[in-house]
Design goal:
The protein is mainly beta. It has 1 helix and 5 strands; from the N terminus they run ββαβββ. The chain is extended, with a radius of gyration of 25 Å. Residues 1-45 form the Phage tail collar domain. This is Tail fiber protein. It comes from Pectobacterium polaris.
């Protein structure tokens, strides 16, 4: 469960990839037969598809890498003998010596694609 503090409360463990003793925590051992808790640091949790058809090939605890949905960015330029380049947002148009398009840098550009979010630690009951 999400936990808003840096340390887990007594009787709980952080989901940070740590190993645990299945003899001491037999219920955790049933859920995590490897004896290792999932490492949820910096990860988003996504609900299992469970027959819905949105993400059908996933199993509980499976890791999914990042993707960016395929899309296009048409581009081009307009030139007249002077070498002037003009860009427009009217979409792709061609004709003679003209190709119009728009190119912009996103002011929120970063090293990953992500939704807005709030950081929590994830914890599990140590039982």
């Amino acid at each position: 469960m999400p936990w808003p503090q840096a340390t887990a409360p007594s009787g709980w463990l952080k989901c940070n990839g740590q190993a645990f003793d299945k003899n001491i925590y037999p219920l955790l051992g049933q859920a995590y037969s490897s004896g290792i808790l999932p490492d949820l640091r910096g990860e988003f949790i996504r609900g299992c598809d469970d027959g819905r058809g949105v993400d059908p090939s996933r199993e509980p605890l499976s890791l999914q890498g990042f993707t960016v949905q395929g899309h296009t960015h048409p581009s081009g330029s307009y030139s007249r003998g002077s070498g002037t380049l003009l860009y427009t947002s009217v979409g792709m148009q061609t004709g003679g010596d003209r190709v119009f398009s728009e190119t912009r840098e996103n002011e929120n550009a970063g090293t990953e694609t992500r939704p807005r979010n709030i950081a929590f630690n994830y914890i599990v009951r140590a039982a």
